[in-house]
């Protein structure tokens, strides 16, 4: 099994879904894994090769919660940090995945067991549980400080030759040069922006999609 070649280090809502689509276009295969136990018990060894079997790129949560461990385990992997201004990031999270999480809390009893496990994972891994705690999330300065601290950690700890910082709105050129692959003859993806997320969420299509994917044993990672 080939090891991970690309590790996404950016939080959700920084263009990670566009990056996921872009990596698929470039021939990388991204794994929508769930690593609940690995996060809760960092002292335990993890069979990363088994968890990422068949995939050579991973972005968004929950992978981003393990960047420190994955970059050591896969020393040849390249790290892509998707980034944006903390103020716009917070607004995007609030109008999209925070709303979705709050809606999911009201639908908990009707969730499948699989979706309940996904929610439990999200409560542990994503923003210290703030998506499911309105009081915690509404402390805007604390949430933005968490985001900025993560970005600063990546910049300080990932060797410069392994790191590409990709600002929201960038296209193919910088990414492809960093990965040493040709630029595809298609526009760079613009996936899952706030407006499309809100449109799908408000009319119920996104919730239906998540339920359908959960029933098939898949997760829908949006960013």
Automatic annotation (TrEMBL):
<dbReference type="InterPro" id="IPR027417">
    <property type="entry name" value="P-loop_NTPase"/>
</dbReference>
<dbReference type="Pfam" id="PF17784">
    <property type="entry name" value="Sulfotransfer_4"/>
</dbReference>
<dbReference type="InterPro" id="IPR040632">
    <property type="entry name" value="Sulfotransfer_4"/>
</dbReference>
<protein>
    <recommendedName>
        <fullName>Sulfotransferase domain-containing protein</fullName>
    </recommendedName>
</protein>
């Amino acid at each position: 099994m080939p090891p991970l070649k690309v590790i996404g280090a950016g939080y959700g809502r920084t263009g990670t879904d566009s990056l996921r689509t872009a990596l698929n276009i470039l021939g990388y295969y991204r794994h929508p894994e769930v690593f609940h136990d690995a996060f809760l018990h960092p002292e335990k060894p993890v069979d990363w090769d088994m968890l990422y079997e068949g995939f050579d790129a991973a972005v968004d949560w929950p992978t981003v919660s393990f960047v420190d461990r994955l970059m050591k385990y896969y020393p040849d992997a390249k790290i892509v940090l998707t980034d944006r201004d903390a103020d716009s990031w917070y607004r995007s999270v609030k109008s999209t995945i925070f709303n979705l999480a709050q809606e999911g809390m009201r639908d908990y009893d009707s969730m499948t067991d699989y979706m309940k496990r996904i929610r439990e994972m999200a409560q542990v891994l994503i923003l210290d549980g703030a998506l499911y705690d309105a009081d915690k999330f509404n402390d805007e300065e604390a949430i933005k400080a968490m985001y900025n601290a993560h970005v600063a950690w990546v910049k300080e700890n990932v060797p410069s030759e392994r790191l590409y910082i990709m600002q929201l709105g960038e296209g193919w050129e910088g990414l492809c040069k960093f990965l040493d692959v040709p630029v595809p003859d298609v526009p760079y993806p613009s996936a899952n922006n706030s407006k499309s997320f809100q449109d799908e969420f408000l009319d119920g299509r996104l919730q239906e999609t998540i339920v359908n994917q959960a029933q098939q044993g898949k997760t829908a990672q949006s960013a």
